[in-house]
Amino acid sequence: MSAVTIDSTRCKGCELCCRVCPQGVLRVAKQINTKGYFPAEVGDGTLCMGCCMCAVVCPDVAIEVRVHGVHYDFLGQ
Ligand code: SF4
Ligand code: SF4
Fold first, then answer.
1. 46-67 per-residue burial string, b: 16 or more CB within 10 A, e: under 16
2. CA 33–ligand 2 middle distance (angstroms)
3. How far, in Å, is the centroid of ligand 2 from the Cα of 38?
4. Out of 3.30.930.10, 2.40.50.140, 3.40.50.2300, 3.30.70.20, which CATH number does the structure's domain 2-70 have?
5. Nearest ligand (C-alpha, residue 15)
6. What whole-number percentage of the chain has pLDDT above 90?
7. Cβ–ligand 1 contact at 58 (below 6 Å)
8. CB count in 10 Å sphere of residue 32
9. Which of 4, 51, 66, 74 is the most buried (most CB within 10 A)?
10. What is the pLDDT of residues 39-63, one digit of tens each?
11. 52 lines ligand 1 (CB under 6 A)
């Protein structure tokens, strides 16, 4: 069981995560965030297989992935 979440306040809408996701889980939201960008959002989260590619590619560290409850932290914080 895996789960992906996006901190929309950190997102700058570059869409890298949407393009890299092999499952098509992520998409661009229809509403802007507080920075004035259209942020990424989670579509059908049940399709997420926990590969973490989205979190690795995100330049703003806005994505969090948990696999079987384990949080993968790419900054080591
Ligand atoms: S962890 Fe993998 S499958 Fe899940 S949303 Fe991110 S890129 Fe897609
Ligand atoms: S890669 Fe990060 S900054 Fe770019 S759209 Fe996805 S969540 Fe937003």
1. eebebbbbbbeebeeebbbbbb
2. 12
3. 10
4. 3.30.70.20
5. 2
6. 83
7. no
8. 12
9. 4
10. 999 999 999 999 999 999 999 999 9
11. yes
